[in-house]
């Protein structure tokens, strides 16, 4: 008889604090969950002013030795800078204070250092707030890496809701896109016998459903919007911890988004160069089309995104129709080992055009 030898590690945040003016609780939180008094605040220039300086003041008042480091991008060079700085100053804990890039750099540095970190989001642009994965930029796009789950999440909704609303809408779209990711995961389980966790899938779907159920309430300049969005993003991050990978929240819609990034920084629309779309915005549009391919309720995805104010068309996204089609045709190249509704050979150009037109994306 064969012995059962399977094992799995799941690491979750020990505490999650979400709400109005929760930054004031940072010292008490650190006292409860972390040994040692040497703290490193990781932020960018903007988030240092938004929240980092206040956290520094609170921790110093509570007799912590606090250092700061500024990061400028989510890349391996910045991660190494944080690691080297933390080693030099014998840091006991990291606080990632900022948006997705800052938190991704912090969580990867924490993973390499085997040092606890607290996630302190200043905006809610994607579901990486509590996940055990980090997305780093390189020349050909983004790469997802195993990282540390935060020991705690401290989300101050008073700060988050004041960030540009575009970021919050993007984060909501990212959470909604869990619907297509889970559909892909179930498909891979049926056709490729890929390991599947119903518990992780339910959590991911719950995060998406929370946003869609409250889509009418998610508006600019309303603090409750940040409350709803952050809760959903944290649940989505926990789903990935349960799964031990990004499957519950990353499928064909993310492959589509990453291919858009891979196709180049020049986003042109009617001769005008526009700001690069946010990751969650791209995933939201990807989810509309991928749920259509699955035969699911793609209109509900589209309508929820519209209510929130996230893009649902190529024009609103600021991406040319040509680039949308090319990204659909080539999306399967991003993670060929991850089976999705796009299959192993992807869509033909004709099929991609039909898909984008039928869903109103182009």
Can you describe what's shown?
This protein is an alpha/beta fold and 362 residues long. The chain has 2 domains: 15-160, Rossmann fold (3-Layer(aba) Sandwich); 165-358, Dehydroquinate synthase-like - alpha domain (Dehydroquinate synthase-like, alpha domain), CATH 1.20.1090. The protein has 15 helices and 10 strands. It has helices spanning 26-33, 45-61, 76-88, 100-113, 157-160, 165-176, 178-192, 198-213, 223-243, 252-262, 279-294, 298-308, 314-317, 321-330, 349-358; strands at 15-19, 38-43, 65-70, 93-98, 117-121, 133-138, 141-146, 152-156, 268-269, 272-273. The strands form 3 sheets. A 6-stranded parallel β-sheet has the order 1-8-5-4-2-3, sandwiched between helices. Strand 6 (133-138) and strand 7 (141-146) form a beta hairpin. Helix 7 (178-192) runs antiparallel to helix 8 (198-213) and helix 8 (198-213) packs antiparallel against helix 9. The chain starts with 14 loop residues before the first strand and ends with a helix.
Provide key terms for this protein.
362 residues; alpha/beta; Rossmann fold; Dehydroquinate synthase-like, alpha domain; six-stranded parallel β-sheet; two-stranded antiparallel sheet; 10 strands; 14% strand
Topology of helices and strands:
Layout: E1 15-19, H1 26-33, E2 38-43, H2 45-61, E3 65-70, H3 76-88, E4 93-98, H4 100-113, E5 117-121, E6 133-138, E7 141-146, E8 152-156, H5 157-160, H6 165-176, H7 178-192, H8 198-213, H9 223-243, H10 252-262, E9 268-269, E10 272-273, H11 279-294, H12 298-308, H13 314-317, H14 321-330, H15 349-358
Parallel strand pairs: 1-8, 2-3, 2-4, 4-5, 5-8
Antiparallel strand pairs: 6-7, 9-10
Helix pairs in contact: 3-4, 6-9, 6-11, 7-8, 7-11, 8-9, 10-11, 10-14, 11-12, 14-15
């Amino acid at each position: 008889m064969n012995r059962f030898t399977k094992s799995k590690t799941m690491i979750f945040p020990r505490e999650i604090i979400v709400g109005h003016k929760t930054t004031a609780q940072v010292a008490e939180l650190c006292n409860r969950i972390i040994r040692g008094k040497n703290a490193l605040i990781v932020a960018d220039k903007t988030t240092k002013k938004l929240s980092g300086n206040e956290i520094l003041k609170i921790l110093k008042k509570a007799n912590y030795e606090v250092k700061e480091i500024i990061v400028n991008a989510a890349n391996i060079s910045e991660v190494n800078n944080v690691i080297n700085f933390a080693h030099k100053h014998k840091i006991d804990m990291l606080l990632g204070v900022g948006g997705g890039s800052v938190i991704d750099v912090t969580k990867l540095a924490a993973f390499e250092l085997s040092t606890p970190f607290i996630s302190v989001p200043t905006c809610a642009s994607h579901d990486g707030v509590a996940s055990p994965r980090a997305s780093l930029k390189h020349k050909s796009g983004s790469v997802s890496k195993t990282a540390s789950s935060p020991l705690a999440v401290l989300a101050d909704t008073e700060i988050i809701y004041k960030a540009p609303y575009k970021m919050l809408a993007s984060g909501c779209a990212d959470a909604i896109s869990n619907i297509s990711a889970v559909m892909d995961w179930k498909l891979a389980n049926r056709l490729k016998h890929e390991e599947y966790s119903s518990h992780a899938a339910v959590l991911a779907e719950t995060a998406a459903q929370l946003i869609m159920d409250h889509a009418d309430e998610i508006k600019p300049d309303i603090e409750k919007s940040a409350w709803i969005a952050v809760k959903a993003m944290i649940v989505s991050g926990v789903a990935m911890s349960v799964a031990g990978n990004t499957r519950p929240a990353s499928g064909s819609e993310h492959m589509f988004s990453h291919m858009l990034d891979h196709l180049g920084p020049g986003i042109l629309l009617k001769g005008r160069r526009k700001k690069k779309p946010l990751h969650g915005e791209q995933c939201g549009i990807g989810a509309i089309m991928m749920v259509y391919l699955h035969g699911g309720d793609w209109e509900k995805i589209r309508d929820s995104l519209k209510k929130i104010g996230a893009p649902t068309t190529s024009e609103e996204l600021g991406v040319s129709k040509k680039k949308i089609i090319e990204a659909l045709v080539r999306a399967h190249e991003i993670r060929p080992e991850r089976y999705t509704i796009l299959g192993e050979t992807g869509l033909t150009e004709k099929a991609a055009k039909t898909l984008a037109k039928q869903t109103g994306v182009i």
